[in-house]
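Input/output pair, single chain:
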Amino acid sequence: MKQNISQEIEMNKFYINYSSIYNTKIKRLLDLILAIILLIILSPIYIVISLLIVIETGFPIFYKADRGGYNNKTFKIFKFRTMVKDADKIGGGTTALNDSRITKVGGFLRKTKLDEIPQLLNIINGSMSFVGPRPELLKYTNQYVGEEEYILKVRPGITDYSSIEFISLDEIVGEENADDMYEKYVLKKKNKLRIKYAKEVSFNVDLKIFIKTVSKVIEKSIKVITKKG
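Output:
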């Protein structure tokens, strides 16, 4: 009886968070304004990266793939292409350490997280947010049960608790059997962190995650650049 009451209280708290005006209205407006401003500011970087990709491996510039999204609706996520053409057909969905499919330009983009900036387009079209559970492959989201279904009650984002925790995912899954390692050691942990975000969604939480992510990305980028230098 006590367990049922505590579960009901927990569910009510979650409902209040994900159905709040902030999550349903204000957050979307803030996302849209900031994404448009950043898209304008970063447009020269978009052009340079696009040229580098075309020079090295030709078109397409963007990688587009299906992901499980808000209210379990499938959407296309945008990234700069960092692998050889048709990489999905010659390897798994998880990128291994030193994956042979990754191009030279792609390796730099991945390590500095610049491959993610086309997701500003996802934010503008409403399929993503700056902060929210990182979107997963459909083969995983279709298996969500219980509290994992909370993940789909908020817009997926460019960053969340799991993005910070697993910022160097390739190093964790290693060079062999990346999909198996991901499913065995990472997926459940990431889902717990995604659930944590879905339960706590608020302006303060988003701001905290956003600032921490920027800090982590700058720190990692400096290490990559100084190492190459």
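The radius of gyration is 18 Å. The chain is about 60% helix and 10% strand.
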